[in-house]
């Protein structure tokens, strides 16, 4: 799927959401934010909803379990490195991994690499197998 975070590497914006006044999500707070929850994001015409299963499995909700054409499926793995301001979430879709800092801008989130926004305005929905609004 073209919308997965690993394929979203072109810079979406400048430095605005990868520094203050946004707050970097670090250490255990990063694991708490993602584990057992769904990240909802969009860029251009692509939209995705990735479920961060406890234990590290990463699922794309797509159109849900009941959809015969585009059901939810595992797309890779995720993990968190808790290291203060060097804390990152790493995604592996089977073709190599990508690591991102996550910045909280008041309830929407930016996924950043080297201070550059790759995905912005992402939201987190509580739970898995719930889809995004």
Automatic annotation (TrEMBL):
<feature type="signal peptide">
    <location>
        <begin position="1"/>
        <end position="16"/>
    </location>
</feature>
<protein>
    <recommendedName>
        <fullName>C-type lysozyme inhibitor domain-containing protein</fullName>
    </recommendedName>
</protein>
<keyword id="KW-0732">Signal</keyword>
